[in-house]
């Protein structure tokens, strides 16, 4: 489902949600299943543009999702199944996280697109 | 040098540079040394607020650096040693990358800060 890395996106401006997290290590199978399901659901949500997600062997992960508007981010935040996953994340799956919402105003790439 | 994950940052607004890259696998030692040096130099650059960097076993990496102003990002972009590293990155170290510059306007965390 993460078909391209880096994600191929339209021209700026667009919006980014930067989610940096450290896993507890609890419930690895349930976590992985939910993470896959959230990527699937997010990608079907209106305004979704793309996602990039990396986690290293130490449990440090960064997921950046890209969106057309702030409203599309808010709608995804309030999706009922996503709200349930957020609660599990806070309660059991993440030791720490930071979530940052940003407006992307400049972009470049290799190869040049 | 990346002392905290996620990075501890001041209140919004601030700026983020999201660098998503796929390594070629060439020159792993030279690459690692240069990556460390760039983190050291960036952290001494005016306006630097923090950095988060993760790379997985497949060579996919996301580094997000945080800055006080767009001008501080531009100054770091033009640092002479950084320009040399950028050239090596384009020519030998990265198969693909995307670089996105964004203004962060909302943030939250666990634990709540």
Question: Could you explain the architecture of this structure?
Answer:
- The structure is a homodimer of 113-residue chains.
- Chain A has 113 residues and is an alpha+beta fold.
- Chain A contains 3 helices and 4 strands.
- Chain A has one domain: Alpha-Beta Plaits, CATH 3.30.70.
- The first copy, chain A, has a 4-stranded antiparallel β-sheet.
- In chain A, helix 1 packs antiparallel against helix 3.
- The radius of gyration of chain A is 14 Å and the shape is globular.
- Chain A starts with 13 loop residues before the first strand and ends with a strand.
- The relative contact order of chain A is 0.29.
- At the A-B interface, strand 1, strand 2, strand 3 and strand 4 of A face strand 1, strand 2, strand 3 and strand 4 of B.
Supply the key terms.
homodimer, 113 residues, alpha+beta, Alpha-Beta Plaits, four-stranded antiparallel sheet, 3 helices, 4 strands, 34% helix
What's the short story on this structure?
The structure is a homodimer of 113-residue chains. Chain A is an alpha+beta fold and 113 residues long. The first copy, chain A, contains 3 helices and 4 strands, in the order βαββααβ.
- How is the biggest beta sheet of chain A arranged? 4 strands, antiparallel
Largest interface: A-B, 37 and 37 residues
Q: How many E strands of chain A?
A: 4
Annotated CATH topology of chain A: Alpha-Beta Plaits
Rg of chain A is 14 Å
Distance between the termini of chain A: 22 Å
Whole-number total of structural domains of chain A: 1
Task: Work out the strand percent of chain A.
Answer: 35-45%
CATH architecture of chain A: 2-Layer Sandwich
Number of helices of chain A: 3
In the predicted model, the low-confidence regions of chain A spanning at least 5 consecutive residues are none
Major sheet: arrangement of strands of chain A: 2-3-1-4
The secondary structure category of chain A is alpha+beta
Shape of chain A: globular
Averaged pLDDT of chain A, please? 96
Task: Give the class-level CATH name of chain A.
Answer: Alpha Beta
Order of helices and strands of chain A: EHEEHHE
What's the quaternary structure here? homodimer
Helix proportion of chain A: 25-40%
């Amino acid at each position: 489902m993460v078909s391209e890395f880096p994600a191929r996106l339209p021209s700026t401006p667009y919006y980014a949600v930067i989610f940096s997290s450290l896993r507890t290590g609890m419930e690895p199978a349930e976590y992985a299943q939910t993470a896959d399901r959230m990527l699937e659901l997010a990608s079907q949500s209106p305004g979704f543009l793309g996602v990039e997600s990396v986690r290293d062997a130490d449990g440090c992960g960064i997921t950046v999702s890209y969106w057309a508007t702030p409203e599309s981010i808010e709608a995804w935040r309030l999706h009922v199944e996503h709200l349930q996953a957020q609660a599990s994340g806070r309660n059991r799956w993440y030791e720490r996280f930071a979530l940052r919402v940003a407006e992307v105003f400049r972009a470049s790439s290799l190869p040049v697109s």
